[in-house]
Every structure is written in structure tokens, then in C-alpha cells.
Amino acid sequence: MAEQYSLRVEKRTGTGKNVMSRLRHSGYVPGVYYTKNGENIQVQVIYGELEKVFARAHKSNIVDLAIQDGP
Questions:
Q1: What DSSP assignment string belongs to 5-48?
Q2: What is the pTM of this model?
């Protein structure tokens, strides 16, 4: 049986080159979660947390996202 992996992400606001650059310099990774009904949820996650989960889950495992309201 495969292990279950989960990652907490936060909703984010703002788009554009400058906003994403500031986000990355703050230690976050921007992303987009696409739902089944076509809704796009913009998210952000702390780089270190993403790196830990990715190191354990590798490329071929499913990671559950826990989406929290933004900062």
C-alpha cells in the first residue's frame, strides 16, 4: 500500500511578474490548483515544506493538498 503525502498550501492573491518575484524572494513558491469544475485556485507554499514533501513523495506519488485561506 502506498504512503499518503499531504502538503499545506495557502490561497494567494495578486498576479503578475513583480508580485511573483516578491513572493519567491520571500521564500514561497507560487502555484495554481485546477479543480474538476474548471475553477482555478491560486496558491502559495513555503519552499522548504514543498521540498520535504517532494523528496519523500518523488515524482510518481499523489500529494493531497490542504488549502487554507491566505495570510
A1: EEEEEEE----SHHHHHHHHHTTEEEEEEE-TTS-EEEEEEEHH
A2: 0.81
**Sequential pLDDT tens for the chain (71 residues):** 578 899 999 999 888 999 999 999 999 999 999 999 989 999 999 999 999 999 999 888 889 999 998 55
Residue 66, beta-bridge partner list = 8
Please give the DSSP secondary-structure letter assigned to residue 61: S
Residue found under cell 520535504: 52
52: helix, strand or coil:
helix
Edge-to-edge strand order for the sheet containing 5-11? 28-34, 40-46, 5-11, 63-68
Report residue 30 as a C-alpha cell: 507560487
What is the C-alpha to C-alpha distance for residues 30 and 51, in angstroms, rounded to an integer? 13
